[in-house]
Amino acid sequence: MEIVVGSLLNGLVYGMLLFMLASGLTLIFSMMGVLNFAHASIYMLGAYFAYEISRWAGFVPALILAPILCGAIGAAIEIWGLRRVHHNGHIAELLFTFGLVFIIQRGLQMIWGMLPMPYRVPPALDFALFTMYGANFPAYRGFMLLVSAGMLLAIYLLLKKTRIGLIIQAALTHPNMVSALGHNVPVVFTTVFAGGCLLAGLAGVIGGNYLTTESSMADAMGPIVFVVVVFGGLGSLGGCFVASIIMGMIQTFAVVFDYTLGDLLVPLGVSVGGDNLLGEILTVPMARIGPLLPYAMMILMLLFRPRGLLGTRDT
């Protein structure tokens, strides 16, 4: 029971971190139709900015300023980059953001080097929030859950309950009508892209010291974020949330349970041997294939439901 409860809590924390990062990408795609390959690189920038700001001003200023800097960089990318290549179609946009990945990564390595940064949990949150079954649950993880839940509520209220949210949603489907009503549609798109990058930067601030702040952190998080977006459904914020929790739970439970796929067949009376290829695959411990499970689930989702869990567009 201790392992189950601990894994549930850790899976929820990791899943909410995935949601914070994937929600920005989902918003950008749903509002603009742009699948931003450089989104995880903005997440990495947020972690590095937070590390530098926290060294001089503390964690709270970093929590505020680092996402704003990432949002400003996102606005610059949209105005001077994506807006110029937009008329060439989505392939040009994909190639542009793909190139940004290497530029940002090499730029960070030139400035900070390739070694991990000593970005640590702030001392004010470095204590046990509660103890369950003899194991401590860190207060910082509770803080991550609080920030993620607050972000989810803020996005919902912004898009569903405010005039700005109505304008953003209308600009997605009827940009000409929104422009005729006097709204600057390019500015709306810039705001959406900058907002998505701000969310990625916020995920970097609170995830950089939870995981590791290094120049390859975008490579580690980027693929799983795209899995979350595709599995949940392109353009669906609700699907993104559900997929984030599912992927977080899968990766967490796969590590702590020492079972194999063959063990699941034993109650059915099927004995699995390791003297052939299928037997070797079925006897591999779940902890070793855990990182592959999200990608296998994405493939199955694309085969049987290309729109994803709650998506409205075919991928």
Structure overview:
By secondary structure, this protein is an all-alpha fold. Helix content is 70%, strand content 3%. The chain contains 13 helices and 2 strands. It has helices spanning 2-32, 39-57, 59-85, 90-112, 139-161, 163-173, 175-180, 185-208, 217-232, 237-256, 277-282, 286-289, 293-304, and strands at residues 128-132, 135-138. The protein is globular, with a radius of gyration of 21 Å. The mean pLDDT is 85.
Fold topology:
Elements: H1 2-32, H2 39-57, H3 59-85, H4 90-112, E1 128-132, E2 135-138, H5 139-161, H6 163-173, H7 175-180, H8 185-208, H9 217-232, H10 237-256, H11 277-282, H12 286-289, H13 293-304
Antiparallel strand pairs: 1-2
Helix pairs in contact: 1-5, 1-8, 1-9, 1-10, 2-3, 2-4, 2-8, 2-9, 3-8, 5-6, 9-10, 9-13
Summarize the structure.
With 315 residues, the protein is mainly alpha-helical. The protein has helices at residues 2-32, 39-57, 59-85, 90-112, 139-161, 163-173, 175-180, 185-208, 217-232, 237-256, 277-282, 286-289, 293-304; strands at 128-132, 135-138.
